[in-house]
Amino acid sequence: MYPSTRSDREQWITEAHYNLFNLKSQQVFIDLLTDSGTGAMSQEQWSALMSGDESYAGSKSFERLRETITSLTGFPYVLPTHQGRAAENVLFSVMVKEGHVVPGNAHFDTTKGHIEFRKASAFDCTIDAATDTSLYHPFKGNLDIGKLENVVQVYGKERIPLIIVTITCNSTGGQPVSMENLRAVREFADTHGIPVIFDSARFAENAYFIKVREKGYQNRSIREIIREMFSLADGMTMSSKKDGIVNMGGFIAMNSQALFREATTFNIMFEGYITYGGMSGRDMAALAQGLEEATTFGYLESRIKQVHYLGGLLREAGIPVQEPFGGHAIFVDATRFLPKVPCEEFIAQTLAIELYLESGVRAVEIGTLLADRDPDTRENRYPKLELLRLTIPRRVYTRTHMDYVAAALQNVYRRRNKITSGYKIRYEAPIMRHFTVELEKIT
Fold it and tell me: Which of 45, 166, 175, 178 is most buried when burial is the number of CB atoms within 10 A of its CB?
């Protein structure tokens, strides 16, 4: 898309009811909405794709994918799904029932949505440091063991079907979880007899941060770190559209044959046969290759340094961002950026709209809209963090694109004190509203 005029963008965002998900791709100049499925595949992935085996059952593409996953994670049982939320749907259909409570580190939108859809509750047990964007902590994705213990004391371990650990933790700013914390969660879970499941969309990026930030891992390979990480879990869900570097795909992997057999029933019902699960053979072949590429230090360092380059530009300009920088995106602290916009007028969404109007850059709100309503009171939930996520697709944009994004956000920052009002809801879905919400500007 060539650059548009501000009047063009004003018309388009109005027609989209101020929801950036409703914009057409040709109305966007640089698209930082998500890194999910928006990366560019390598020539080796395209080559693998062309040799895909489309057999309905037992294809060689599935065999290669399963062997790759088991080699990386150690999990012997694998079910493909068409994407990460489908993996959650299948696994939670087995494990999560009405009245259950599911603790974790800042569950992301689809995870919390699948839990609450089953009339269960999600509890955030992230460490407090995660909500102070100006504080340096190398592993802001860590779980607070004291908070986990409190959930057990209040609700009883019988109501806790699993603990979810998101690596890296998207909702707190793409923040990693340390190996030390993963061990502590494993010990806690073993004490109480609770399974541990990793939400693993960005597991390779998490391993990179362990290597460069955690004592004792500097001389370990990325794949050695990955294998140790997953040795501390009972299973995983995966959105392969992130660290698998494919446009569509996901999977579940686990140790338990009994859990695998229960999950196969729902996989067949919702996704497809257990050796393709909503994915074509060519997509499974591309994913197997992508997992191998994404778990190399050279690739990860290049990818994450591009993200940190953008973060450095914003920090130098005085723009408040979550620090330290995460792995897949830079998260702008919208509350500190727009202090005059009331929280009930959706601060981060207001900032996202202002950035689009300024430049044609599409980002995404991680704040009150995404937090949704309390399922019992139906009141808005106001999270401790109102964030604008600038999500960098893999192998797509150049340093010049990052310069443009930074300049655009700086322009908005210079006029931030003139932005004093936001938006109100005119339509919302009963769950996961942020995808389809319609807003009106408050004048």
Answer: 175
